[in-house]
Design goal:
By secondary structure, the chain is an alpha+beta fold. Helices cover 15% and strands 18% of the residues. The strands form 4 sheets. Strands 1-3-4-7-14 form a 5-stranded antiparallel sheet, with no helix packed on it. A 4-stranded mixed sheet has the order 12-11-10-13.
């Protein structure tokens, strides 16, 4: 059964049905938005991210973060928390994490293991898997779970903000919003400890870096399409976003990009700083319920 909840109140932007970058002021602390959430059959809570436009990247940033460019994305559901070890074990019957804890984010995950989790979670909930694990391609039209595109991830992380971080531009404030090298005691922590961003998403910065669906290319932004970009057609590595418990503050900005090998075999080395969260399309019934609110 799908259960809907509310996560606070910030109706001004949501009323238009289109969230634009900068809505709510560029340097105000995050407020929890009037964003509906869904409790899924696997026990994870998801937030509805409305369709909208934003400026992706950073004009004065490193080579792989520019040019800053306008991007439009469709609406989607996104896990409110990084996938926890509790949920991962329920879906896949195993736990690869080094720092064990049911409410800790699952880590030591490769991109391919995250994809396999997405497919298994889809089957568990009666949805159509998105991934072909022979070709490792994603069917974006399938009803099941997948990893977010890099554009979806940044749009959701910013939640209307145009700053370095979703709470402003001052890196010294990060210690009050995320687990990173300055406060993590060199380990990941249970999800949801810090204040969420304006759309109610927790730990979008720090704790564990989050796998995205996209191949990584440092020059991709120069040719990125405006609507629903899905990354390069091929590549050697996959994108990671958000920084981790081991990251410096400058690597936990909303625009900072990282990458790693996808890891298609069990002998591939994995990092205890790599985790993920899932996204999927809202079902017609869910969209109807969302519109009725």
């Amino acid at each position: 059964m799908t259960i809907f909840h509310r996560a606070g109140a910030r109706a001004a932007c949501l009323a238009a049905g289109l969230i634009l970058a900068g809505c709510g002021g560029p340097s105000k602390p995050a407020e929890v938005a009037a964003t509906p959430t869904v409790k899924t059959a696997s026990g994870a809570e998801m937030v509805y991210i409305p369709p909208g436009e934003f400026i992706m990247g950073l004009a004065e940033g490193p080579i792989d973060a520019k040019p800053a460019h306008a991007v439009k994305v469709d609406g989607f559901l996104m896990d409110r928390f990084e996938v926890t070890q509790e949920v991962y074990e329920k879906v896949r019957g195993q736990n690869p994490s080094r720092q064990k804890g049911p409410k800790n984010p699952v880590e030591q995950t490769t991109w391919s293991s995250a994809v396999k989790f997405c497919n298994a979670r889809s089957v568990l909930e009666g949805l159509s898997p998105c991934y072909d694990t022979n070709s490792w391609t994603c069917n974006f039209d399938a009803s099941g779970y997948r990893l977010p595109t890099e554009a979806e991830w940044e749009y959701a992380c910013r939640a209307g903000a145009t700053n370095q971080y979703y709470f402003g531009d001052r890196p010294e404030k990060l210690k009050s919003f995320a687990w990173f090298e300055g406060n993590s005691q060199a380990k990941p922590h249970a999800v949801g400890h810090w204040e969420p961003n304006a759309w109610g998403l927790c730990d979008m910065l720090g704790n564990v870096a989050e796998w995205c669906n996209d191949f990584y290319s440092p020059k991709y932004y120069k040719s990125s399409p405006r609507e629903n970009p899905r990354g390069p057609a091929d590549g050697e590595k996959r994108v990671l976003r958000g920084g981790a418990w081991s990251s410096a503050a400058e690597n936990c900005t909303v625009w900072a990009r990282n990458c790693d090998e996808a890891g298609f075999t069990d002998v591939c080395l994995t990092m205890d700083s790599d985790g993920f969260r899932c996204v999927r399309r809202a079902t017609p019934a869910e969209l109807a319920a969302l519109k009725a609110r």
